[in-house]
Design goal:
single chain; 234 residues; mainly beta; Porin; 12% helix
Length: 234
């Protein structure tokens, strides 16, 4: 008789102890219903020049590297929609056959013909401070850290440094911080994917250069598309 009562008492005591422990665990892990998706971002892109003048072609690999931080401002109760505003840095290179040279302090543009001028390097580069503004949709929750996302938006960039680098039959030609570049750059952006890995595209809405002409009075209206991967890190 005593043995069943003793076992029943032990079972009841153990059950109460487990329930108390579970309650303490729940209290210690309060779900944050006001969470944000504040994120660092790191991206790598292939840069494609568009609206190129006749004869201008890209060669090699034109790469872009992008990093920064985005602050998240949820706009619905479920916090699956938000506005993101960020600040970052971007460096981009463009390998092509458009020679940018300095002739008596006047910048000149000319298309290089490989059969007439041999060269091992011809590129221009840009360094920018950028401010992305995004409308963000995701199926995240306070406890789900791996989710699908679609971030579309707009990006402003201020070009604080630019340069050109040519090596070939004409010698070595380097120009730093030429005023022929448009310092203000802006375009549309889209990032979509799952968890850390995301496809990313940037479509430039204005030209890389100011109003310039090359041989035969052809307008230089080149802009860019960047295509690559964007990584978001909480």
């Amino acid at each position: 008789m005593l043995k069943p009562l003793f076992l029943s008492f032990c079972f009841s005591f153990l059950s109460l102890h487990l329930l108390k422990a579970q309650d303490e665990i729940v209290k210690d892990s309060v779900i944050d219903t006001k969470y944000r998706e504040d994120q660092f971002y790191l991206g790598a892109t292939y840069n494609v020049l568009i609206n190129k003048p006749d004869g201008v072609t890209q060669s090699g690999f034109s790469i872009g590297l992008h990093l920064g931080f985005i602050r998240d401002f949820p706009i619905n109760n479920a916090r699956t929609k938000a506005i993101g505003v960020g600040l970052g840095l971007s460096t981009n290179s463009y390998n092509q056959n458009l020679l940018i040279s300095d002739n008596n302090e006047e910048i000149e543009f000319s298309v290089l013909d490989g059969s007439q001028v041999d060269f091992s390097k011809n590129k221009f580069f840009t360094h920018l401070i950028e401010m992305p503004i995004e409308f963000r949709w995701r199926n995240s929750s306070a406890t789900n850290y791996k989710f699908w996302r679609i971030y579309g938006g707009f990006k402003f960039g201020y070009m604080f440094r630019n340069g050109t680098n040519f090596k070939g039959d004409l010698g070595t030609i380097k120009i730093i911080n030429s005023d022929v570049f448009n310092k203000l750059q802006y375009g549309l952006t889209l990032s979509t994917g799952y968890n850390t890995w995301n496809f990313h595209v940037y479509y430039g809405l204005n030209t890389l250069f100011k109003d310039q002409v090359i041989a035969k009075q052809t307008s230089l209206d080149m802009s860019e598309i960047r295509v690559g991967l964007m990584f978001y890190l909480l």
